[in-house]
Amino acid sequence: MTGTVAAGSWVEIGAVVLAPDARAPQVPDDTRTVPLELRAKGFLAAPARVGERVEILTAAGRRLAGTLVAANPAYRHGFGAPIPALAGVGREARALLERDAEADGSGEGEP
Q1: Burial class (CB in 10 A: 0-12, 13-18, 19+), 87
Q2: Which of 6, 27, 49, 56 is deepest in the core (most CB within 10 A)?
Q3: Please, which residues bridge with residue 39 across strands?
């Protein structure tokens, strides 16, 4: 995206929280060689361009500062492929609950 992002837009910022030389000594060696970085999303406090230092207000009400990374950022996480062994678990559990409810006469297993 080019151009100015309007104040109040949903954005993502990035910032370095700890430089590599400030990392705790007990962290693994490969972790200690890289900075601890922050990525956060929130509403832009003032108009800005990607790459500029900005302040945001998060959904939890925190004010954070960092470099504007993206406007209207997409969620890119996932939970991976479905696990075939778990695909029918919900249906099986409902059937067991309904069968038990019918057996004791409570009827609580009925939809």
Answers
A1: exposed
A2: 56
A3: 14
In sequence order, what are the beta bridge partners of 66? 54
Question: What's the rounded Cα separation, in Å, for the pair 56 and 64?
Answer: 5
Q: Is 92 helix (H, G, I), strand (E, B) or coil?
A: helix
Please give the distance of CA 98 from its chain centroid, rounded to a whole number: 36
The partner residues of 44 in beta bridges, in order of sequence, read 56
Q: What is the rounded CA–CA span in Å between residue 37 and residue 55?
A: 16
How do residues 79-96 score in pLDDT, each as one tens digit? Answer: 899 899 998 999 999 999
Interacting residues of 91 by C-beta distance below 8 A, sequence separation 6+: none
Name the token pair of 23: 């990392």
* Other Cβ atoms within 10 Å of 5 Cβ, number: 21
Instruction: At 45, list the tokens.
Output: 């406090």
Span 23-62, pLDDT tens digits: 999 999 999 999 999 999 999 999 999 999 999 999 999 9
